[in-house]
Amino acid sequence: MKRFFRISMGTLLAPVLIHCGGGPEPVGSDELDGQSQIGLSYTSQCVAGSNFIQGTTGNDTIVGSAGDDCIFGGGGNDAIFGGLGNDRIWGEAGEDFIDGGDGNDKIWGGQGNDVLAGGTGRDEVLGMQGDDHVTGGTDNDIVGGNEGNDFVDGEAGDDSVYGHEGNDRVFGGVGNDSVRGGDGDDIISDSVGTNRFFSQPGCDVTNGVADSECPAPTVASGDATQTSVMLLASTTVESTLIFTWSDPNLSAPLGQATVVVSDPAIPAKVMVTGLEPGTRYEYVVTAGVPAHGRFRTAPANDSDIGIRFGVSGDWRGELAPFPAARNIASRDLDFFVTLGDTIYADYPSPDLNQPQALTLGEFRIKHNEVYSPRAGLNTLADARASTAWFATIDDHEVTDDFAGGAAPSSDSRFAAYEGAHIHDTELFTNGLRAFYEYNPIETLSYGSTGDARTQGKPKLYRTRRYGTSAATFLLDARTFRDQGLPAVADPFDSSQIFGFLVSSFDPSRTMLGAAQLEELERDLLVAQAEGVTWKFVLVPEPIQNLGVLFASDRYEGYAAERSQLLGFIDNAAIENVVFVAADIHGTIVNNLTYQTEPGGPQIPVSSFEISTGAIAFDAPLGPTTTEIAAAVGLIDSETYSAYLGLPTEFKDVFVQQLIDAQMTPFGYDPLGIEPESGIDATLIEGGYVAAHVFGWTELEIAPTTHNLRITTYGIDAYGVNDASNPASYIGREPAIVSQFEVRPK
Questions:
Q1: Are 672 and 725 part of one and the same domain?
Q2: Is 359 inside a domain boundary?
Q3: Which of 45, 480, 562, 711 would bridge with 405, disulfide CB 3.0–4.6 Å?
Q4: Are 532 and 635 contained in the same domain?
């Protein structure tokens, strides 16, 4: 019989040596394309009488005979076809493709990431080293992955299928199979036939059900109304999540929903409706190990009960696990509001060590990072499981100080992207989509507004009513804003300052967009008319004036719209309006005034603002402000050195005086709530400035009296240089750093 063996390497045929039978001597009239020879190896593994074929160190294509072959691929990335007969095939080194063909074959992949297929017959197929793709075929096969992260599929027949080491995907296929994952975190599936599954070390997910070695999902709830809530769960493995919600004792399940997670990078969400107002609910999300959460629905409009909620923002992934947030879960809050910068997409961090997230996958990594455990803590996940959350964006969910309503050509970071506005570009939509995915909020859009800037665009604005005690108005101050004004670089240059102030009063410039501003004003009027005591306007950037330095990104840079909003509140006699902001990485409290023109008199409003946070940003407001003041010559080096030696409480006083000195020339009120403001406030602890800590702010309204107590919790700040040693800061416990009470009008 004449037998043909083909071995090729690119366009060149490799030199080879053929040996058949059991010895090293050439046999009969065997022929080889390329007129070369094949060498003998591993003869003890082969069936007597087999045709021996040895590949080269290059990339070979080998086709076996109709008989029993013993084939060795050698080095290189080989394509090997066993053909007919009971073959023994070794891929050896390289990334090989091997098809056993007909017959009862034994196939070993060897080193490299191989693709192995048993074909027809009763085959034994083993991936060996590397991340291999291994399939059995149509008969009763033994199929395994061995080392590496393998894909293993028994296909048809009654198979024995296993992953061995590594994180494998193991499928039994059709037939009565024995399936095991082996060591590692494995995905195991076999739904056809009578099958046996074997649990082994690692987090295994079998037919969508995670085992007890898989970590519990992280859970959250948000966007709660009187009758609905959004539930969210994030898992690290492909699995089936079962959401169950019930009364506080979990004794009477009220509903259940199932979500199949095919991509763990995307959290699962369930919208729950038909709930009762003012009711506490518990929920559990099961995927092997269950995870528990709780939330309260908003009370009925006529309820006269107290509420307690928290607000903060600004946390960077490299500063996790955020001990400043560790007491949120224990405060029994009705809800919590995040005012943006919940990731810093434009800062490197451990999970994405690059200066800017660009793709959707990269933005997802940044969000997943801040809600994942580190050093045994996961404070934000604990907080999100403890109460309903509301969320809006600021700039760092996409990139620093961007203006979503501006043209892409106005910002070099967006100039290469298509879109009429920056909020139409791929960079923005990637960032916003990941934000929606990782927050328990509903995806809403504006309808027909008559304004191309907002029509059909994402809507983050939210308003909620909490009985007669309060209403909240959560703003998006980033998506629709015009490009910021050029910054004042020299605080001693009066022409720069005057030019900035005049430009900021351009009535065509907007931070909120006309549709959002109109809705806010309308909702404020409704709350006042319906007798709601406190109205909380939650805006990422401060509306209080702090001076011209770095004012471009704050509401000061949009002074005409700022004056329109504050003037509306004043002229409509809307009482007890409190603005709550973040972004500046410190707590500052001040009553509010406005002007109708640049340099005009300050008109007081019976409203005040508190800024809050950061949960973790290096450096906080105090050190940042004084360092800048020293750099631009507002304080000398001796004064700066003296500041550095002060205890924290005196540093806060220093920063307050420094900021006041920048505001006084413009006729702005100094920081704090003065008696002549008409706001009836009492300072209980600390001061109206807390600029050297990481923390968050709690706002509590007492029933009946509706007195408002505002408490800021903080820990000593830490920095990026401390991040490599979390043990140096994770034990810090939040304490009260500022507390005051305000009586309503």
A1: yes
A2: yes
A3: 480
A4: yes
Query: For residue 227, what are the domain limits?
Result: 218-296
* 3-class DSSP state of 605: strand
Residues 369 and 250 placed together within one structural domain of the fold: no
Which of 296, 329, 358 is at the close of a domain? 296
Report the distance separating Cα 241 and Cα 653, nearest Å. 51
Which amino acid, 717? Answer: A
Residue-wise pLDDT for 610-625, tens only, equals: 999 999 999 999 999 9
- For 703-742, letters b (16+ CB in 10 Å) and e give eeebbbbbbbbbbebbeeeebeebeebbebebeebbbbbb
Of 30-39, 373-382, 460-469, least confident by mean pLDDT is: 30-39
Residue 598 lies in a domain: yes
Lowest-pLDDT range of 219-223, 249-253, 501-505, 616-620:
249-253
Beta-bridge mates of residue 108: 90, 126
Q: How far apart are CA 653 and CA 490, in angstroms?
A: 25
Which residues touch 562 (CB under 8 Å, ≥6 apart)?
511, 543, 555, 556, 594
One-letter amino acid at 2 equals K
Residue 72 is assigned to a structural domain of this protein: no
Is 431 buried (19+), middle (13-18) or exposed (0-12) by CB count in 10 A?
Answer: buried
134: tokens are 């291994």
- Cα–Cα distances in angstroms (integers) from residue 442 to residues 127, 241, 433, 597, in the given order: 45, 19, 12, 39
pLDDT, tens only, 700-715: 999 999 999 999 999 9
Residue 617 has phi, psi (to 5 degrees) of -145, 130
- CA end-to-end span of the chain: 106
| Structure tokens, 623 | 């050190």
CA angle 433, 582, 659 (to 5 degrees): 145
Q: Is 222:437 a contact under the CB 8 Å cutoff?
A: no
Cβ partners under 8 Å of residue 647, min gap 6:
none
- Residue 191 confidence class, pLDDT cut points 50, 70, 90: low
Residue 232: which CATH number?
A: 2.60.40.10
Residues 657 and 571 in one domain: yes
The edge-to-edge listing of strands for the beta sheet with 51-54 is: 19-20, 51-54, 69-72, 88-90, 106-108, 124-126, 142-144, 160-162, 178-180, 196-198
Q: How many domains does the chain have?
A: 2
Q: Which residues of 568-588 are buried (b: 16+ CB within 10 A; e: fewer)?
A: ebbeeebbbbbbbbbbbbbbb
Query: What token pair was written down for 733?
Result: 């416990």
| Residue 70, beta-bridge partner list | 52, 88
- DSSP for 720-745 reads GGGTT-GGGTTT---EEEEEEEEE--
Give the CA count within 13 Å in the CB-facing half-sphere of 703: 6
Query: CB of 630 within 8 A of CB of 696?
Result: no
Nearest residue to 71 (alpha-carbon basis) of 25, 26, 7? 7
Residue for token digits 């394309």?
33
Query: What is the number of residues in the chain?
Result: 745
Q: Where is the domain boundary, 296, 324, 357? A: 296
Instruction: Assess whether 401 and 252 both reside in one domain.
Output: no
